Amino acid sequence: MDYELSKPQKMLQQSVREFCGRQCTADHVREIMETETAHHAELWQGVADQGWIGLHLPEEHGGLGLGLVDLAVVFEEVGRACLPGPFLSSTWAATLISKTGHAASVSSILPELCEGSKIGTVACFEEEAGWVSGQYDAVKAEVSGDGLTLSGKKQLVADAAVADVFVVAARGEQGLTLVLVESSANGINITPTEGLDATRKLYEVTFDIVNVSADNVMSTGADAERALKESQQVGMVAVCAELVGSMQWMLEESVEYAKTRKQFDKIIGSFQAIQHKCADILLTTESSRSAMLYAAWALSEGTDDAERAVSIAKLFCSDAGQKVGGLAIQVHGGIGFTWEHDLHLFYKRNKSNEFLFGDATFHRELVARLALDAA
Amino acid sequence: MDYELSKPQKMLQQSVREFCGRQCTADHVREIMETETAHHAELWQGVADQGWIGLHLPEEHGGLGLGLVDLAVVFEEVGRACLPGPFLSSTWAATLISKTGHAASVSSILPELCEGSKIGTVACFEEEAGWVSGQYDAVKAEVSGDGLTLSGKKQLVADAAVADVFVVAARGEQGLTLVLVESSANGINITPTEGLDATRKLYEVTFDIVNVSADNVMSTGADAERALKESQQVGMVAVCAELVGSMQWMLEESVEYAKTRKQFDKIIGSFQAIQHKCADILLTTESSRSAMLYAAWALSEGTDDAERAVSIAKLFCSDAGQKVGGLAIQVHGGIGFTWEHDLHLFYKRNKSNEFLFGDATFHRELVARLALDAA
Amino acid sequence: MDLNLNAEEQAFRDDLRAWLKDNLPEHRAVDHESEEYWQHLRDWQRTLFEGGWAGLSWPTEYGGKGVTPLKQSIYLQETVAAGAPEHLGVIGEGLVGPTIIVAGTDEQKTEFLPKILNGDHIWCQGFSEPNAGSDVASLATKAVRDGDDWVVNGQKIWTSFAQGANWCLLLVRTDMEAPKHKGITALLVDMNSPGISIRPLKQMSGQSGFNELFMTDLRVPVKNQLGPTNQGWRIAITALMNERANLGASMYPFFDDAVTSLIELAKTRKRNGKLLAECPIKRQKIAQAIADLEIYRLDSARALSRLERDSTPGPEGSMLKIFWSEMYQRLAQSAMEILGDVSQLEGFDDGAWVYRYLRSKGATIEGGTSEIQRCILAERVLGLPKSY
Amino acid sequence: MDLNLNAEEQAFRDDLRAWLKDNLPEHRAVDHESEEYWQHLRDWQRTLFEGGWAGLSWPTEYGGKGVTPLKQSIYLQETVAAGAPEHLGVIGEGLVGPTIIVAGTDEQKTEFLPKILNGDHIWCQGFSEPNAGSDVASLATKAVRDGDDWVVNGQKIWTSFAQGANWCLLLVRTDMEAPKHKGITALLVDMNSPGISIRPLKQMSGQSGFNELFMTDLRVPVKNQLGPTNQGWRIAITALMNERANLGASMYPFFDDAVTSLIELAKTRKRNGKLLAECPIKRQKIAQAIADLEIYRLDSARALSRLERDSTPGPEGSMLKIFWSEMYQRLAQSAMEILGDVSQLEGFDDGAWVYRYLRSKGATIEGGTSEIQRCILAERVLGLPKSY
Asked: What values do phi and psi take at B149, rounded to 5?
């Protein structure tokens, strides 16, 4: 049994950290988040050149064929740098396309997504249905001639303004219908809806009778449900890893500050109240990392408890990101509450990630279902 | 506006405190709780002689005609001494009889309960229905000749073994049926069910075709629901007051210990970790007292928000009793965890009181109902 | 124990309500950092003065009304509940004025007190520094005597209302050798003096509201020194006690608004085919928010009742501060859990929840951190030995 | 990263399971404080030794098996999961033996080590005193040299297994003048010596399990001194590190049992016409308990994996201790909320929940309070300066 990262994984970790140290400093993040889309072509090209997009996808789909622990290593490090832009969105979209196994899309768009020449995102969330795809109803897919027309609205679509393609989770005759749509298609309307995390922009996307060819219908019904769910599980591993990276940053900053800041002629890190808060940040971060790594491994291995492991990681990391953020600000005192200090970048990202793919309450119910409702 | 106790209330407080200091020391409580019933005739006579039983009932019912704030003052102080025996049980039973206004019972049994020559308790709780009287179904009241027969089982009946009379919340033809039954009646079976609080003994009471005359049916249907609810609200004020008294005791003990105990050559009260715990005990105790006093006052005055006030007090004090207990033990360290130290008496009473008349979750739902479901 | 207002208190409230109804200015939706906004606040301060509502807590001999703490609290709650503009004079009336009354010379009283009441002088408070946060007494801003002036150099932070203020109560170090509490002097500083500049301080929420203050060879006449030289710490303590007593009471309507709005949203928005208000888990959270708010209301009322009796604000103010600041954070977090993913949008309920979520994090820091407040309770209320 | 057991580890587990199946004694429902119970435990210790399962962690040269920490952990989990009796030798094998191996003389090694393994010697640990709780080094039990003996007077507390033990690792003060850490000596004490007496210490749950130890003119031969005079503190630290490393790992089956039983109860008992497991609020609480337990399992596995690599237990043991002790309290509290009023009865589920509710309160105190553990993490893992 070995819970440690392997040597190649540690090397990967090191290379992501170095990349972020060079190309994704906090100053740079701030500049990029002030732009309209938080997408920076050069940074994006850098990410793409590293091969991180689709890292975990099969080589025949344009990926590197690595595992989800490797993906988690990358997302933890970019989380520690609060990387702005569509990395997560495009990773999710690519994963979903790959999971549908839809030959045309897999061979046409997937390699482009993996090499970063195109950007994808998933139009999935609806306010009233939340993350329960069985209740998606806001975008209808109706048969029209050889293809479909899409009509309706999706919310909280990350990075929609810079995406070349959307995977849309619509409701059709066969139930859930996953459709690949070019963002340039007629009838698509993209409205920015500013969220508290300015490093990952959110949009409302409306479909006003958008015509889609039958070739673009990737999956329907139970198959579509399975593909969407599997892609979300991968997305959750990535989000949990981002949360862990963010907590790690907060831990390092808080400890550093507690070691240097003086009040009452003493280093504040010598006060029990500060010591215990730092210890709690450590405990919470490490437990989150245990949960996240296990979820990544279990999902990669396809263990029996993988679904439970992912939900437990998401519920624990969601709560933890919140808690660690609060503790870190409190350790910093006034300065941690200013715009100048970088804490708020991470604090806000944590909040946004808390919701993404379902919050702690949502995943507790899933865990309960597995434990209580089984035959 | 005046949130302070009045002069007479302060005098009452002082006299209860002095009584308990004399007749209800911790050593005495321990002796009494080791007995089968935790009822001590002499102590009981003392309580009765003080006029505390039925203190809040109308003079024409045998009470002193004082208000619920006065009752709260008494219960806070006896809570601070962890008074064993049937004071709360008999107070609840007397209140319930008074609330039914059932002339025969009011004139016959109520004065005896108030002067302590008889003891009463209420057989109400059922595991499956909890504290929702609308669902009581475990004891059936069936018409039989001129009267009724009772059959079934009630649980968690406090002090049943020393009660002379039970008020039974049964289900009859008119719905909830409140029946006064002598504990000596044929067919009543009282089984001790040891709980963690040994100072207030709990019993299962079974009714095996117990014949009751029509004169003993005090109230039915909506009237019975109202009387039971009102009596429970008074009971809740008493329980919250006990909880506050218990927290007050824990506060005093913890602060005293923190002021004298040395570790690492320092008084432990000078460590921030201990200081902050003591501060939290203080904060929680004082907020509980605010809530409890307001509930008592609002219920006495019959304000519009009385029901909400009582539920808020109960939910807050239930959680608070728990929290303060945990903090107090932690401040004491190992010694606080021993049988020798008196902390556990209060800690266990708090746990039992947390459940009595509904726990925090139950009352949060009631508060939600008032806020969310109103027309 | 009687929690009803007595006849006199009711009359006070009714008078105030009637006056507010007639005198409240229209709400102006302008940029809170614009000069127009500051003028709006200055106008309101003048209106209050002319209506006879300024200096409620002050003794009548200084132009005040000498009303009870309860009436002051009624005033605060009613004005906030009526949607009155922010009270620009809060620092002058609540903190500087009472301190001048205690420690000022006759000349200072004559010069400053009337202008605080009539709104000519708007005050801010220059205590905190970047390296003197919780430990205010370790402040480094230095003043050196030069003839009839103090010459001040240094930096202050977290100065609220500085943009709108024309006077500042400034703490400076005048004896570098003395123990830190014994080398501090309090100065009354004209903000229009040369050598003083302001920079708004952006919070994590993106708003400002606080400022940094920079002093470079700022000259302050010795006649504007408040209290004896090197005894400014006592002045600061008096001022802070007054601040803490004020802070707690006026917050209720703010949180009441928040909870009311949460309830309304829960009753109208849906998730998974049901109103939010129908979900048992969300109901628990809403009820807890309601209970929290009610406990805060009751704790405040009880503190006020004690103040009515004892008349000087004690360290119990720390209890209210801890309660409301932590309640604020619980409320903001819990509300976003109830309202769901869309509550992270700036456009959701006009960004009210995003603002509360971010702003609440400052609450346990500003005006004395929760850690400091708990030490105060432990040491001054419970009598535990001083902590390390 | 690979969380599967490798072939060798699997083989170890399978062997152990097979052996346990054949050798596990029948469960005897006897009073835990009776002599019969102690004999039962002594028999089991002997069975383990004869089966070759004693001294797993010890080097082979001292009769041990030298297996990896992971295999030790498999052993602990499997024995508990199989319902094996308490391991009476836990202090001898886990704490005293390894300390003798590091610090003992050759004679001591020859005399004591084999008897620890074969169960002849059952050890207890006499460190804590009524006035030396978290601050163990301030112990006052005094030993004065008299010829070839130390003469010991004083009191110890929280001595677990003392009734069943015949030997004790005792810390005593041998230099009253030296700084407290530098005047302590470790002694190996025969519990059958005159001058030593035991009193069971009743916990708030009513059970004992701990003891007080009284020493009056107890004579301990100098040859049974472990390590140099006045250098007993280092011995204590070694022992405590070993204790902490042991404590964390074996608890999982205990908590797993509790959560499993909670789930079963929730699926069978009803409230308000519905199974407890159908209530959305209770479902949240159950799920949180499941998640907590799983995090504990994963944290333990991760710590073990690190130990496999680094081989000496570090202060990270404090992380596991904090987690499981606080989880235990959350679990007990939450379970009683789920199970409702009747869970306060001693007769409910054989009193398991009342016991857990009360017993869990000791968990954040014994073996180093949560406060001390957090300071250890802050200072030794995070490198913060020593606290006051």
From this structure: -120, 140
